[in-house]
Amino acid sequence: MRQTPQRRQVEVPPGATVIARMPNGKERRAMQLDEGVPVLEIRAAKGDVEILPGDEVELTRPPA
């Protein structure tokens, strides 16, 4: 079991979408996630995808 990490802020780019889901086995091993920890999949408008551990980030929006 890993220590609870301190959360870091990640800004969601304009036009991006975020999906919370359970990681596959490869992602779970690569990120050393405990059982039951979800990942956040951020899909940018350009098509780029970033996958982050759900217990390590706090999503923010840019000011309007």
Rg calc: 12 Å
> Can you give the mean pLDDT?
92
State the shape.
Answer: globular
Structural class: mainly beta
What is the share of helical residues? 10-25%
| SSE succession | EEHEEE
In whole angstroms, the N-to-C terminal distance is 39 Å
Strand content range: 35-45%
Q: List the uncertain runs.
A: none
Number of strands: 5
Largest sheet: 3 strands, antiparallel
H/I helix tally: 1
Lateral strand order in the biggest sheet: 2-3-4
Oligomer: single chain
Give a brief outline of the structure.
The protein contains 1 helix and 5 strands, in the order ββαβββ.
Characterise this structure.
This protein is mainly beta. Helices cover about 10% and strands about 35% of the residues. The chain has one helix at about 25-30, and strands at about 10, 15-20, 40-45, 50-55, 55-60. The strands form two sheets. Strands 2-3-4 form a three-stranded antiparallel sheet, with no helix packed on it. A two-stranded parallel sheet has the order 1-5. A hairpin with a 5-residue loop joins strand 3 and strand 4. The longest helix is centred in the middle third of the chain and has 7 residues, at about 25-30. About 0% of the residues are buried.
Protein topology:
Layout: E1 8-11, E2 17-21, H1 25-31, E3 39-43, E4 49-53, E5 57-60
Question: Tags for this entry?
Answer:
1 helix; 64 residues; globular; 3-stranded antiparallel sheet
